[in-house]
Amino acid sequence: MAFRDIRVVGDPVLRTPCDEITVIDDRVRRLVTDLLETVDHDGRAGLAANQIGVSLRAFSWNIEGDIGYVLNPRVVATSDEIQEGDEGCLSVPGLWYPTARAQYAKVEGTDLDGAPVTVAGEGLMARCLQHECDHLDGRLYISRLAGDVRREAMRAVREQF
Fold it and tell me: What does the Swiss-Prot or TrEMBL cofactor note state (predicted)?
């Protein structure tokens, strides 16, 4: 099993935009295996490559028993309708804050064969797609918070880490 440790807030890899995958080789195939095996646990909705220390554009998801991955994902569409709800992150463990996200999101990328992949969904899937693409852009969900909620989150992060 290739279960990998999760990097937590403060690790520079989480704040650095990830590189495009230009060659699909054994390293990338191992990365996808690691992403799929590491996300396949209760309470894990998604996992970006940089959360396991690999600065490449790839993520996996685990939404309601549907587990998958995408390479070089880009959000290509979102709805104007906004969902409100608490959001958490494996890299900011134990902290959940209300985070606005589009109710619908669509991501395009490729699979290990280089074939086009489209992943889309509403609700939790949409939240996951946006959250994981943010990771690959070097952004944690807590950076989306504003006002008192942001101050509370940053205080909690300082105290916890």
Answer: Binds 1 Fe(2+) ion.
* CA–CA gap between residue 58 and residue 109 (Å, rounded): 9
CB 48 within 8 A of CB 36: no
Give the number of other Cβ atoms within 10 Å of residue 85's Cβ.
13
pLDDT tens-digit profile, the chain (161 residues) = 467 899 999 999 999 999 999 999 999 999 999 999 999 988 899 999 999 999 999 999 999 989 999 999 999 999 999 999 999 999 999 999 999 999 999 999 999 999 999 999 999 999 999 999 999 999 999 999 999 999 999 999 999 87
Domain 12-160: give its CATH superfamily.
Peptide deformylase (3.90.45.10)
Four-residue CA torsion sign, 92, 96, 100, 101: positive
What CA–CA distance (Å, rounded) separates 56 from 95?
Answer: 26
Residues in the chain: 161
Task: Judge whether 132 counts as a catalytic residue.
Answer: yes
41 is annotated as contributing to ligand binding: no
Which residue in the list 20, 87, 122, 132 is annotated as catalytic? 132
